Each structure stands twice: as C-alpha cells, then as structure tokens.
Amino acid sequence: MKKLIKFIGIGILVLLICVITYVFLSVPKLPDNSNVIIEDLLSSELPEFVNGQTGYAVNNGTNIWYESILPTATNKGAILLFMGISNDALGWPQPFIDNLVNSGYQVIRYDYRGTGLSSWVENWEEQPYSLTDLANDGKVILDSLKIEKVNLLGVSLGGMVAQEFAINFPERTSTITSLMSSGNILDKELPPISSKIVFELVKTSMRYGIFSSEKNTIKLHLSSRVILQGDAEYDIDVKGTAEQVLYNLRKRKGYNPNASKQHHEATYRSGSRYKKLKDLIIPVLIMHGVNDPFIPIAHSKKLKSIIPNARTKWFENMGHDIPLNLTDEICKEIYLLINSNNEK
Questions:
Q1: How far apart are CA 339 and CA 344, in angstroms?
Q2: For the chain, percent of residues with pLDDT exceeding 70
Q3: Is the pLDDT reported for residue 15 higher than 70?
C-alpha cells in the first residue's frame, strides 16, 4: 500500500510539473522589448492618468468612483464610457481618452462596482448584481454631475451595459455607440464567445497571476492583449499599457481577482436585450473588428438587423481591442454620429 501511495504521489507530481511546464511554454510571446520597457518603468516616475474632476456617486450604499474630464475649449457634449469585463476606468487606452477630450467632448468614465476604487462587493454570492445595476451606477453619476443627456460609448461588456442604460433611461441618452459587443451573448443562433480564447486567457492568468508581482501583473495584461488581438496585425502599446497597470497597482487599489467571475454572472443574469432594442429610436452606431477572436462579428451584425436605423462600421485587421493605429478612425465615426444627431 505504501508503494502504491508513493507511486500515485510521484505520478501526481510529474503531472503537475508537466502542466506547469506546458503553461509556461505555451503562453503567447510578449511584444518585442517588453522586458526592457517594463524594467525601465519599474524604476521610473509614472505619469498622472487621473486629471479630471473625481468623486463618488452612491447607489443604494455602493460607492462608485468616477472621473469627469472637461475639454479646454467649447464643450460639444458629454460622453459616458463603459469599459469591458473585469476592467476599471483606467482600462481605456489613454490616447483614446485624449482624442475624445481634445476633440471638445466632456469624458466621464467610472469604475464598475467590484473594480478600481468603487466598492468591492462583499458577500457577492448573496447579492449578485446585473448589467442593469452597472447601468444604474452610470445614471447615478450623471445625477451627481447634474448632466441631463449623454452620449454612450461601450466596449465589449461595456456595450451591453450601454444598451441597458439606453433601454432603461432613453430620456437621458443622446446617442449610443456599441463597440465589439452583443445584444445577447448567449444567442444560440450565433457563434459563442471563443472557448479557445478563454482557455488561452486562463493559461495566461496561471502563468503570470499565481506568483503575483508588479512585473508579472504587467505581463499578464500585455499577454491578454496579445491573445485578444488574434490574427490581426498591429503594434500593441507596451509602454502605455504597462504605465496604466503600474499606476493602478501603486496609486489605486489594484485589480480585483473576483471581478471577472462577477461580471460574467452579471451578463448571464441580464439575458437577451433583443426585444427592447427593437424599440430604440436613439441614434446608434455599431462597430466591430472583422478579426475579433473573442466576440464574433456576427453578434454586431445581428444587432444591426434588430436596431432600427443603426449605422455600422466594420474594421479590417482589428481584434478584440482598441489599437492605436485605429484610434483616430474609431473616434471619427463616433463624432459623425454625435454631430449628425446634434444637427437634427
């Protein structure tokens, strides 16, 4: 019996070593010079990423952190941003934020509950939240800032939250832009979220997340971006991404390891929005990358068939990401939507 137990123990150890070796060797290669850039940043002074008016809006006892960034010139209107799954307000690429503000728009971004400086929900299993709750948080922020109407912009899960906002608060919504998102992520008639990509993201989390450090957390975010890039070809902003991650770790609360699970559950609890989206009379822009490896573009095409008079823009050579080389073009489409609505 002792020999059998010893044999089983050795077998488990060998298997564990094989799994660890596989994980370490099979994660994607980081962009060139990543290690050099990371090492340099670890000993350098970080830029300031939060320059606007900050505060907390309280929604039924839950504190929601937000930032409102005003343009220096004429204010052309407010844009409320909704980030993707498990990301906080700093998940937005800084060049994208700068483009919006420099073009004359007031930008409002916030940390979803469970992320960033917003409340990290305790006893979440007893009080899970939905996408509607996340949208309500955005509405409470507008109330705090005394903003009556706003342009909505959501990416991935954020597109779904923006849809919930528009459905529940049409009188507060001027336009809505849905970027690489879905009206029903569980639609059985459409290809599902890529299980292969999910597996790759899990492996990356194991590779860089088990032994947590500033360097590994940066590499986790960079590796995730490489995975979500898919077969699209463009340069990832290594320095910008690394700076934002390090800023989050050193000057904010860091990253909630439970946020992804909570946001997945919130998505599933919310179900389909197809029926309600058919009644939208708000100007809508739907954008998606043709190469998106995570949420197939078929989801945005289904949205187009459902939402009356929705505009679309499909981007070649774009994964599940907002790449630097497409920032200007993406923003241009958003401005066209907002301006055409203002001219009515």
A1: 9
A2: 92
A3: no
CA distance 133 to 78: 21
| One domain for residues 302 and 163 | yes
Cβ atoms < 10 Å from Cβ of 18: 10
Backbone φ and ψ for 187, nearest 5 degrees, come out as: -60, 115
Does the model's pTM come out above 0.70? Answer: yes
Question: What is the percent of the chain with per-residue pLDDT over 90, rounded to a whole number?
Answer: 78
Number of domains composing the chain: 2
Residues 326 and 190 in one domain: yes
Are both 210 and 278 inside the same structural domain? yes
Scored b (16 or more CB within 10 A) or e, 169-203 reads beebbbbbbbbbbbbbbeeeebeebbeebeebbeb
Q: Which of 160, 42, 174 lies closest to 105, judged by CA? A: 174
Note whether 81 and 153 are within 8 A (CB): yes
Residues 235 and 323 in one domain: yes
Domain housing 21: 1-30
CB 300 within 8 A of CB 286: yes
Sorted by sequence, the CB contacts under 8 Å of residue 276 that are 6+ apart come out as 167
pLDDT mean over 116-144? 92
Q: What is the 3-state secondary structure (H, E, C) of 327-343?
A: HHHHHHHHHHHHHHHHC
Q: Are 66 and 76 in contact (CB under 8 A)?
A: no
Q: Are residue 20 and residue 63 in the same domain, yes or no?
A: no
Q: pLDDT tens-digit profile of 150-197?
A: 999 999 999 999 999 999 999 999 999 999 999 999 999 999 988 889
